[in-house]
From TrEMBL:
Keywords: Hydrolase, Nucleotide-binding, Signal. It comes from Paenibacillus baimaensis. It comes from the Bacteria. SUPFAM superfamilies: 5'-nucleotidase (syn. UDP-sugar hydrolase), C-terminal domain, Metallo-dependent phosphatases. Residues 291-429 form the 5'-Nucleotidase C-terminal domain. This is Bifunctional metallophosphatase/5'-nucleotidase. Residues 8-207 form the Calcineurin-like phosphoesterase domain. The keyword Nucleotide-binding applies. Belongs to the 5'-nucleotidase family.
């Protein structure tokens, strides 16, 4: 007599990053695929970074728009990504996942620093039964201990936690599925080092696996980024031996499905209410503040001054590419600040030698650096741009050769000293080696969370004299024959 097989369909998404325009089609696809397999035979999962504060709907609702749509889409379980964990405070996460989520939240390696426990809204693992199949779910998120500590979390190394949980769960379940917001290399390492995982659903590095990677008995899948694709995994197991008989995995374009009308209406409703929230005036300008990527401009100066004040630093350095536009005369709203400065980037302070500062200033005058396109590490701009500074005056010759353009740098009334260490206010992006590499070589780095640099702009706009001070030039062109240099 032929052995009976049990069927399970797993629908998965990852790294949607608040691309609300894709969510109605994903919801429609999941509804159709759930219907064809049967509700009892389907498990719907998300692998983190569904939320991204770059979007009006998310920023204006505090993330409630994402939660509402995930609820209506029918997710059974999710894990959180760094965009949830690092751009929202503990209080915000407690509200969203503790009060609004109608699905299980897996945060296997994220503990509250005060209690040493998984947050009340999360689980280290979850066992769910579908169509007679017991599935053990584990969810791990990217390991950024320095940042999580500042937000009151104790994040654990994810691969060791996963290994421990697999050993605990394996005798209890038929399948183990890991929701891994760790990136492809870590997923491959996990599959190689940890026996007993049936399926790893990946995210974080935005990789798209058109065919699953098979490593031993483990299948690794991922569906790219921004909701352009979603994944489907169909699994059959032998009802008697409880072993996998067949695994087939595929990815699908969300746009090939018509939008779900209910989800589309929900998106429109949240966009409208969020626009209203973000229309709140935060400042009023008697004159416009322009922004430029390739030369000094008042708004860039104002941002640098704000970072210097925020970080209590001697000087401040920030790339002009953080600003996508200037501010017009008249009322300035929260929504406008989101438009011109959408990046979830935090201020930080560090010690930097004069030599490293000088090198970054030199590079900021070279077109290859200024015009360099960037993406990732929180950056939501287009290009790196030049450097805006505060607390210093830079004399340069634009016609001089590369790495010989800077002539003198003044810190207050004294010239910069190459060997001296300065307290520098800057942005976290530079500490990851993105942009000007010498700015990643600082010491005693202190990240300042959870505020973004658009919050710095908002506060600086309200500082007495800050707008007038932003008009003062920090960069001065000098004659090429004046070739003295600090030592």
């Amino acid at each position: 007599m032929a052995s009976r097989t049990l069927r399970l369909r797993i629908l998965h998404s990852n790294d949607i990053h608040s691309h609300f325009e894709q969510m109605p089609s994903i919801a429609a696809a999941f509804k159709e695929l759930r219907g064809s397999a049967g509700e009892e035979h389907t498990l719907t999962l998300d692998v983190g970074d569904h939320i991204d504060r770059v979007r009006i709907e998310t920023e204006g609702s505090g993330g409630s728009a994402n939660l509402a749509i995930m609820n209506e889409t029918g997710y059974d379980a999710v894990t959180i990504g760094n965009n949830e964990g690092l751009t929202l405070s503990q209080d915000s996460l407690n509200l969203l996942y503790g009060s609004e989520a109608r699905f299980t939240v897996l945060c296997s390696n994220l503990l509250e620093a005060t209690s040493g426990q998984i947050p009340r809204w999360g689980k280290a693992y979850h066992i769910i039964e579908k169509a007679g199949i017991k599935v053990g779910l584990i969810g791990v998120t990217a390991y950024f201990p320095d940042f999580y500590q500042l937000l009151g979390w104790d994040i654990k190394e994810p691969l060791s936690i996963t290994s421990e949980l697999v050993r605990e769960l394996r005798p209890q379940v038929d399948l183990i599925v890991v929701l891994s917001h760790l990136g492809l290399r870590n997923d491959q390492r996990m599959a190689d080092e940890t026996q007993g995982i049936d399926l790893i659903l990946g995210g974080h590095t935005h990789h798209l696996l058109e065919e699953p990677l098979r490593m031993g008995e483990t299948y690794v899948c991922a569906a790219g980024k921004f909701g352009q694709y979603f994944g489907v995994v169909d699994i059959e197991i032998d009802a008697h031996s409880r072993q996998k008989v067949k695994v087939s995995a595929s990815i699908h374009e969300a746009s090939s499905y018509p939008a779900d009308a209910h989800i589309a209406e929900l998106v429109d409703r949240y966009r409208s209410s969020s626009e209203q929230v973000l229309s709140r005036q935060v400042a009023y300008l008697e004159q416009p503040l322009s922004a430029e990527w390739y030369e000094e401009a008042p708004l860039g100066n104002l941002l640098a001054a704000g970072i210097r004040r925020w970080t209590h630093a001697d000087i401040a350095i920030v790339n002009a590419g953080q600003l996508l536009g200037g501010l017009e005369m008249g009322a300035v709203s929260m929504g406008r600040l989101l438009q011109i400065c959408p990046s979830p980037i935090n201020p930080c302070r560090m010690l930097l030698t004069g030599e490293r500062i000088w090198k970054a200033l030199e590079e900021s005058r070279i077109p290859e650096f200024m015009e360099k396109p960037l993406y990732g590490f929180g950056f939501r701009g287009k290009v790196l741009g030049t450097l805006n500074v505060d607390g210093m005056r830079v004399e340069y010759d634009a016609s001089a050769p590369a790495y010989s353009k800077i002539k003198r740098v003044w810190i207050g009334s004294e010239q910069l000293v190459m060997e001296k260490e300065y307290v520098v206010g800057t942005i976290d992006m530079f500490t990851f080696g993105i942009g000007f590499l010498s700015l990643s070589e600082g010491t005693e780095i202190e990240y300042i969370l959870p505020n973004f640099i658009r919050d710095v702009i908002r506060e600086e706009l309200q500082e007495t004299g800050a707008i007038q001070a932003s008009q003062v030039k920090r960069w001065a062109h000098v004659d090429i024959n004046d070739s003295s240099k600090n030592h």
